[in-house]
């Protein structure tokens, strides 16, 4: 039996890109941030001089206003328990890659 990879990406533009490059039957992607409770989280998106998103420095924030190079977007956040509770099979391994902001409490 083949394993399944469950991925989570909060930033909508990165999620859409990821869907295009990872379209395999054993990959399940969710457009959501991981947190310890369900809510709308604010994500700071930093852009460079050409207005290209610097995906390496996006993060969940509580700050309302940044400089002109940073955009704030609201993203859906949920707990892993809520996201995984109705699965037919148990999840045997969880690894975090880019956990930042409210995701730390997940």
Describe the structure using short key phrases.
2 helices; four-stranded mixed sheet; alpha/beta; flat; single chain; 106 residues
Structural description of this entry:
With 106 residues, the protein is of the alpha/beta class. The protein contains two helices and six strands; from the N terminus they run βαβββββα. The chain has helices spanning 12-21, 80-84; strands at 5-8, 27-30, 33-35, 39-46, 59-61, 70-79. The strands form two sheets. It has a four-stranded mixed beta sheet. Strand 1, helix 1 and strand 2 form a beta-alpha-beta unit. The chain is flat, with a radius of gyration of 15 Å.
Quote the beta fraction: 25-35%
Query: Based on CA inertia axes, which overall geometry fits?
Result: flat
Largest sheet properties: 4 strands, mixed
From N to C, what is the helix and strand string? EHEEEEEH
Q: First CA to last CA: what distance?
A: 29 Å
Count of beta strands:
6
Backbone CA Rg: 15 Å
Spans of at least 5 consecutive residues whose pLDDT stays below 50 are none
Task: Count helical runs.
Answer: 2
Backbone structural class: alpha/beta
Helix content: 10-25%
Strand numbers in spatial order across the main sheet: 3-6-4-5
- What is the mean predicted local confidence, pLDDT? 76
């Amino acid at each position: 039996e083949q394993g399944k990879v469950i991925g989570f990406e909060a930033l909508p533009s990165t999620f859409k890109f990821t869907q295009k490059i990872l379209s395999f039957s054993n990959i399940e992607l969710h457009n959501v941030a991981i947190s310890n409770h369900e809510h709308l989280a604010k994500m700071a998106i930093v852009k460079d001089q050409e207005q290209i998103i610097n995906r390496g420095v996006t993060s969940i924030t509580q700050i309302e206003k940044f400089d002109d190079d940073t955009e704030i977007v609201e993203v859906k956040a949920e707990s892993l328990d809520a996201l995984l509770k109705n699965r037919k099979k148990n999840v045997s391994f969880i690894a975090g890659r880019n956990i930042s902001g409210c995701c730390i409490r997940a």
